[in-house]
């Protein structure tokens, strides 16, 4: 079976930057990635290059910043009041997850001042080219419940346990 829309794909990956520094390794964590192809669960560039691949396929994909986490936007660097942070001890490099307009966003502290904190809400990998080494482990048809939810579900999930958007 090949990778196509409406199929669940399980794969291992190694993510590295353009200098070859490993940023993430699913095999080292013993946790393969499982996603529903064609539903925007992974970056479009990865989906594009995985389309048509079969179990056992191994490939390398390089994504330019615009295809990955986007270009850096200096407008996303700004000062906020110290009261915006629950932690009393703040230091440059600390990261927090906060709700954003388009879902959760990561905030990186750049500088701590007496009355404010300089933050960067660019994704930490914005502006970086990313290299993926991928190995396809499994490809299967998605269940109706997975299609309704838009992502893979744990094995044994009964359709009645999932709200079916198609029937509501």
Automatic annotation (TrEMBL):
Q: Which family does it belong to?
A: Belongs to the FKBP-type PPIase family.
Instruction: List the catalysed reactions.
Output: [protein]-peptidylproline (omega=180) = [protein]-peptidylproline (omega=0)
Main location (coarse class): cytoplasm
Q: Where is this region: Disordered?
A: 146-168
Which species is this record about? Halomonas saccharevitans
What is the recorded name of this protein? Peptidyl-prolyl cis-trans isomerase
Carries keyword Isomerase?
Answer: yes
Molecular function terms, GO-annotated? peptidyl-prolyl cis-trans isomerase activity
């Amino acid at each position: 079976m090949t990778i196509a829309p409406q199929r669940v794909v399980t794969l291992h990956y190694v993510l590295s930057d353009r200098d070859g520094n490993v940023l993430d390794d699913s095999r080292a964590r013993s946790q393969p990635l499982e996603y529903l192809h064609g539903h925007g669960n992974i970056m479009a560039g990865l989906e594009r290059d995985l389309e048509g691949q079969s179990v056992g396929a191994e490939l390398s994909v390089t994504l330019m910043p615009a295809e990955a986490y986007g270009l850096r936007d200096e407008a996303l660097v700004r000062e906020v009041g110290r009261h915006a942070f629950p932690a009393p001890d703040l230091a440059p490099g600390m990261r927090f997850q906060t709700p954003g307009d388009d879902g959760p966003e990561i905030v990186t502290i750049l500088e701590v001042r007496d009355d404010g904190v300089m933050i960067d809400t660019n994704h930490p990998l914005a502006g970086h080219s990313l290299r993926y080494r991928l190995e396809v482990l499994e490809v299967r048809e998605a269940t109706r419940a997975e299609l309704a939810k838009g992502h893979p579900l744990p094995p044994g999930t009964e359709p009645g346990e999932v709200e079916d958007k198609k029937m509501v």
